Automatic annotation (TrEMBL):
Protein name per Swiss-Prot or TrEMBL: Uncharacterized protein
InterPro entries with a match to the protein in the record: CdiA_FHA1_rpt, Filamentous_hemagglutn_rpt
NCBIfam families xrefs: fil_hemag_20aa
């Protein structure tokens, strides 16, 4: 046929040769071609029925080609510059090419009358391709169903229809659009590829092969991916229903990938630079990696199973209602927001980890970050490992049996209770703060810096548990029960009450401030290496309380245990009861009432200030140094002694029946009467009474001397004042001695009124008896050296000196008597007078009587001392037992009486008529 226009019209055309024209047009019912049909400039085939292009057949055009048939079967070549195929169905195993454009439209024709006489297509709108469909330009396929086992390629490729079954290739360097109302099924050998945009819209997508685009955008009712989805620059896959990714599946993008579905189940590998997932539920047992960011949004339930991985080198954001993680979640930062989290896998934010939950967090896995960790939740149940540089946790409650560690800081703020089980550890190398209503600790709470516990309710630190703050520990609660260890560098405790049967220790300082009871039970230890300050309404110590310095203030103090202070001990309390041991280097107790049936010991000093001091029979009040006390009253039935000075002041009367002893000076003052029926002992003793001092007991001193000052001094028989040093008794009124007052040193007895001795006064040295009236009634007064008896130290004469049946002697000294009246008498004799003539010796009856020595029988007379008597008066007489080396008497008004019972009448001096009664005696 010449190369011009050729038109063929017929019923059936069979061509095995060559038909060629410039413009070739054929209208026929059927065409069976195994030859060549060439329309050089254009080709139009309009078939009412079928077109069969055999394997050797070629239908060609360098121009536009348009083929229309009810059914096309191609095993040969269909090619044109611009090729448009319209058919009911197409079965291609050959080659179909539109150089600049290729369009295929399969299905019901727009004009149903065109194929009215044709046999109905077997599959209306079905394209079966086992060959090649190619164009250097755009390819457009409009089909009901594309079954592709071959290759479809175009500069751009568009597939529209109901269903695509692909086990071949769909390739385009440009945009590739697939729009289906039904399913897209890409088998394991199927490839849908483009370097540009791959846009898929389908009812369902099932992929076992490769769906790849420069950018992949897909929307479907559901997705089942067992193959690979790849959007090199970006990937978006949105489904109204579910998305399922098998174990061997891949979802890859170098850019951002966005997935949205009602439910997503993944067992494969997802990787994108940025990965955004939005799903009502997500079940992951594969790996999802967003290299710079991973975000999962709006998930009612997120389940990352044991094999699951959610990974990012950047940020991970999880937003869901219920999040269950048994696998690995790791990002540079990890932010979890939702209802609840159940984690037995790992949640890691390398630089930051944040969880904000409306409901509970249950962690039996790991929650890790090298940066800040933030948690906000309802109930926090933790049995795993949670570690951050700093942990800031806000929750309704905490139940911990795992390890919760904030390297630099741990902050727990709870509106409800906290429980730390026996395996639980709350740790920080820095600051750790716990705020809660109640706290029960059976494990370990430890801070390298400050441990701050602020509770509105109670705290229980169980046996074997520990609360440790290396630098500081601060605890505030309503009621504290400690059975374990509570320890810190500096410890401060504030509460209503503390029950301690464990250890409370402040390495440097310890402060306990309680509005109620501080109870330290028998197994309890309260310890400090430095200052301890205790303040409580009531302290009951049955255990061990030890510190370097210790102070207590409160209302009641009761001790049956041990209380030790290496340095100072200061107890200030209205009511003090001790049945145990209290010891301090420098101890001071200030109390309205002190009742001691135990041991009070001050190493250097002990000071007691009280209204009532009762040292019971089992009581021991000791000081290895000085001891001083002030009290309104003293009941001393135990042991009371100081190795140094003992200084006591009784602001009332004192009735003493026991023992007080001092290694140095014992000073005891009573503002009222002082009745001493016990034993007072010291190297020196100084006694003062505002009223009467009565000594029926024993006062013993060393060479430090004895001093007694009182309004009146009375020592009944059995009383003893003994000293190795000077003895001084001073009274504002009188001194009465029926016992023994003696010393190796000097004696000074000074009374404003009367000094009466019926006992023994002894001085190894000098003795001064100073009083207005001195009476020695059957007593003994003995001075080793000189003896003065007068009104005062100035030497003034007193009113009288009476020696009645007593002895007044010095051993090696003089006796000086300055008195207005000296009465030296002997009681107990009776005289009977009868008148009879008697022989009068020749030497009697004169003015001077010289008695010969021969008048006396041997032994009747002797010489005691050689002495002189000097007096200013007009009489002299023999006296009873006043013996000295020299006696100096100043008598004012010149009266000396040497008296015995029943003196004879007319007893006057023969020289001066001064009343003088002479009886045998010695002066």
């Amino acid at each position: 046929m010449p190369a011009a226009q050729g038109t063929i019209t017929g019923g059936a055309v069979v061509n095995s040769g060559q038909l060629q024209a410039g413009q070739l047009q054929m209208t026929t019912a059927t065409l069976d071609n195994s030859g060549t049909l060439l329309g050089q400039d254009g080709l139009t085939l309009a078939l009412m029925d079928t077109l069969q292009n055999q394997s050797g057949g070629q239908i060609l055009s360098a121009g536009a080609g348009a083929l229309t048939a009810a059914a096309i079967t191609n095993a040969g070549v269909l090619q044109a510059d611009s090729l448009q195929l319209t058919a009911g169905e197409l079965d291609n195993s050959g080659h179909i090419q539109g150089d600049s454009r290729l369009g295929l439209r399969l299905g019901q024709p727009e004009d149903n009358a065109v194929w009215a006489s044709a046999a109905a297509p077997v599959a209306l709108g079905v394209l079966n391709n086992q060959g090649g469909i190619i164009s250097n330009g755009a390819v457009s396929l409009q089909v009901a169903q594309l079954n592709n086992q071959g290759g479809v390629q175009g500069q751009s490729l568009e597939v529209q229809g109901e269903q695509l079954l692909n086990s071949g290739t769909l390739i385009s360097p440009g945009e590739l659009d697939i729009t289906l109302t039904g399913a897209l099924s890409n088998s394991s050998s199927g490839q849908v590829l483009t370097d540009a945009l791959l846009n898929i819209a389908a009812g369902t997508v099932g992929n076992q092969g490769l769906l790849q685009g420069g950018t992949l955008t897909a929307a479907a009712e559901s997705l089942d991916n067992q193959g690979q989805l790849q959007g090199t620059q970006g990937l978006t896959f949105i489904t109204d229903g579910s998305q399922t990714y098998g174990a061997n599946s891949r979802l890859l993008s170098n850019g951002a990938a966005a997935l949205g579905a009602q439910a997503i189940s993944n067992a494969g590998l997802w990787q994108a630079d940025v990965l955004n997932i939005t799903a009502a539920s997500l079940d992951n047992s594969g790996a999802m990696a967003g290299l710079t960011r991973l975000a999962i949004h709006d998930s009612d339930q997120l389940d990352n199973s044991a094999a699951g991985q959610l990974l990012s080198n950047g940020d991970i954001t999880l937003l869901g209602g219920e999040i269950v993680n048994s696998g690995e979640v790791q990002g540079e930062t990890l932010t979890v927001t939702g209802g609840s989290v159940d984690n037995d896998g790992s949640l890691t934010g390398l630089n930051q980890l944040s969880l904000t939950l409306n409901d509970s967090l249950s962690n039996s896995g790991k929650m890790l970050t090298d940066g800040a960790g933030t948690l906000s939740a309802g109930q926090f149940i933790h049995s795993g490992i949670a570690q951050a540089q700093q942990w800031n946790i806000t929750a309704a409650s905490l139940d911990n049996s795992g390890i919760l560690a904030g390297i630099d800081g741990l902050w727990l703020s709870l509106t409800g209770s906290a429980q730390n089980q026996s395996q639980g550890q709350l740790l920080s190398n820095g600051v750790s703060q716990i705020q809660a209503a109640d706290f029960t600790n059976s494990g370990t709470v430890q801070a390298g810096g400050l441990l701050d516990l602020q509770l509105t309710g109670d705290i229980v630190n169980a046996a074997g548990a520990s609360l440790l703050g290396a630098d500081q520990l601060q605890l505030r609660a309503a009621h504290i029960t400690n059975q374990g260890i509570l320890q810190g560098g500096e410890v401060s405790v504030n509460a209503a009450a503390l029950d301690n049967s464990g250890t409370v220790q402040g390495d440097q300082t310890l402060g306990l401030t309680l509005t109620g009871l501080l109870s330290n039970l028998s197994s309890g230890e309260i310890l400090s290496g430095g200052q301890t300050s205790l303040s409580a309404n009531q302290l009951n110590n049955q255990g061990w309380l030890q510190s370097q310095q210790l102070t207590f203030t409160g209302s009641q103090f009761s001790n049956s245990g041990t209380l030790l202070a290496g340095d100072t001990l200061q107890l200030t309390v209205p009511t003090f009861t001790n049945q145990g041991t209290i010891q301090g280097d420098r101890a001071a107790i200030d109390s309205s009432t002190i009742s001691n049936d135990g041991t009070l010991l001050g190493i250097t000093s002990l000071a007691l200030q009280s209204g009532t001091l009762d040292n019971q029979s089992g009581g021991r009040i000791y000081s290895a140094g000085d001891l001083n006390f002030t009290s309104a009253s003293l009941q001393q039935n135990g042991q009371f002694l100081a190795l140094g000075n003992l200084d006591g002041h009784i602001t009332g009367a004192l009735d003493f029946t026991s023992l007080l002893a001092a290694g140095q000076t014992l000073t005891l003052k009573a503002d009222g009467d002082f009745s001493q029926q016990g034993t007072l002992q010291g190297n020196a003793v100084q006694l003062t009474a505002g009223g009467t001092f009565t000594n029926g007991g024993e006062v013993v001193t060393g060479d430090g001397g004895l001093s007694v000052t009182a309004a009146a001094i009375d020592q009944p028989s059995g009383g003893s004042l003994q000293s190795g040093g000077a003895v001084s008794l001073t009274s504002n009124t009188g001194i009465t001695n029926q016992g023994f007052i003696g010393t190796l040193g000097s004696v000074l007895l000074q009374a404003a009124a009367t000094l009466t001795n019926t006992g023994l006064l002894y001085a190894g040295g000098n003795m001064q008896l100073l009083a207005d009236s001195i009476q020695n009634i059957g007593g003994d007064i003995l001075a080793g050296e000189n003896l003065w008896m007068q009104r005062d130290a100035a030497g003034d004469a007193n009113s009288q000196i009476v020696n009645s049946s007593g002895d007044i002697e010095t051993q090696n000294g003089d006796i000086t008597l300055n008195t207005g009246l000296l009465l030296n008498q002997r009681l107990g004799f009776s005289v009977t007078e009868t008148d009879s003539a008697a022989d009068v010796p020749s030497w009697a009856g004169g003015a001077d009587v010289l008695i010969p020595v021969s008048w006396f029988a041997p032994g009747d007379i002797g010489v005691y001392h050689i002495f002189s008597v000097t007096y200013a008066g007009g009489g002299k007489a023999a006296a009873f037992s006043v013996k000295a080396i020299a006696i100096t008497m100043r008598l004012t008004p010149r009266r000396t009486i040497n008296w015995s019972p029943s003196p004879p009448p007319n007893c006057r001096s023969p020289r001066t008529a001064t009343p003088v009664c002479w009886r045998p005696g010695t002066i």
